[in-house]
Amino acid sequence: GNSVTQMEGPVTLSEEAFLTINCTYTATGYPSLFWYVQYPGEGLQLLLKATKADDKGSNKGFEATYRKETTSFHLEKGSVQVSDSAVYFCALSGGGATNKLIFGTGTLLAVQP
Amino acid sequence: DAEITQSPRHKITETGRQVTLACHQTWNHNNMFWYRQDLGHGLRLIHYSYGVHDTNKGEVSDGYSVSRSNTEDLPLTLESAASSQTSVYFCASSPDRGGTGELFFGEGSRLTVL
After folding, report:
1. Each residue of A6-33: pLDDT tens digit?
2. Residues in B touching A99 (Cβ below 8 Å)
3. Nearest CA in chain B to A41
């Protein structure tokens, strides 16, 4: 079945450091891929998405490229801020006539000043 | 502004009691979902609905039930609460059935079963 694997956390960085959070997936067909972010005490919110191979999603300085050949969708940011501290979830859609998402286990990012 | 609200935000109950978590959205979305969030497991789908009177089981549906009598609400019921159901529960909604994938989440309900 479809699944998502994320790198284990927590990830601790200093402000202005480069961020990479790895995400790989297993899926049949051509799923859409997503990154969601959860700030402390809040629900998840969509950060970015890509719907087909080689698409790059971007938002708030974060980027991720849909790599079909390596089945990956790694999240990157060139210079993190303290306000980026949150839990990040990679997810994929079930595809077809469904809006069900399959989530990874989440990666906690802590950015220190 | 349209929104999705969950209640209660925090609940402590005892093993064996029935518990209902409410979810209400004002976007008029057809699709609604319940997830539970546990350390090491991420989010797992409990039940979902694509419209009024439609309900479907997710990957961890045992011990839970839902009903959809109108577009706005999808209450989640634990018929007989167990300690294994201690978790944070998130309700989400989306407007369309196609695979665009954007879900809108509530702020979560933290349930403790003693």
Report:
1. 988 899 999 999 999 999 999 888 888 9
2. 31, 94, 96-101, 103
3. B107
CA angle, B60 as apex, A24 and B20 as ends, to 5°?
Answer: 130
A10-to-A14, A27, B48, B87 alpha-carbon distances in Å: 13, 26, 31, 20
What is the SS3 assignment for A83? helix
Distance CA A79, CA A17 (A): 5
Query: Under an 8 Å CB criterion, which residues of A touch B?
Result: 6, 31-32, 34, 41-46, 49, 51, 89, 91, 93-101, 103-106
How far apart, in whole angstroms, are the C-alpha atoms of residue A99 and residue A80?
31
* C-alpha to C-alpha distance for B91 and B75, rounded to whole angstroms: 9
Q: Which residue among B33, B45, B105 sits closest to A45, beta carbon to beta carbon?
A: B105
What are the tokens at B33?
């979902």
DSSP annotation of A11: E
Give dist(CA B31, CA B71) in Å, integer.
Answer: 9
d(CA A65, CA A74): 7
B35, B90, B102 member nearest A46 (Cβ): B102
Does the pLDDT of residue A2 top 90, yes or no?
no
3-state class (DSSP) for residue B83 = helix
